[in-house]
């Protein structure tokens, strides 16, 4: 379980192109075609499994939405921010 972040910490640490929606951080990644998005979602899943912190992933035609929250901590944690940064590094 990660350390729950305050509103100020979330705002200052939110990775580039991520947004806060209530108790989640969210980003939509855009791709040229569906299979590129599927491949990216697989990569996100592999990162999540290695880190043992799993996002919600929604695959659309040319977009993939990734959402992180820390259910155990009850909100957005430092682990959510860390994983968002790792996912950004793969894009």
TrEMBL record:
It catalyses: (4aS,6R)-4a-hydroxy-L-erythro-5,6,7,8-tetrahydrobiopterin = (6R)-L-erythro-6,7-dihydrobiopterin + H2O. One of its GO terms (molecular function) is 4-alpha-hydroxytetrahydrobiopterin dehydratase activity. It comes from the Archaea. The keyword Nucleotide-binding does not apply. Keywords: Lyase. InterPro entries: PCD_sf, Pterin_deHydtase. The keyword Lyase applies. Pfam families: Pterin_4a. Its EC number is 4.2.1.96. Belongs to the pterin-4-alpha-carbinolamine dehydratase family. PANTHER family: PTERIN-4-ALPHA-CARBINOLAMINE DEHYDRATASE. NCBIfam families: PRK00823.1-2 (NF002017). This is Putative pterin-4-alpha-carbinolamine dehydratase.
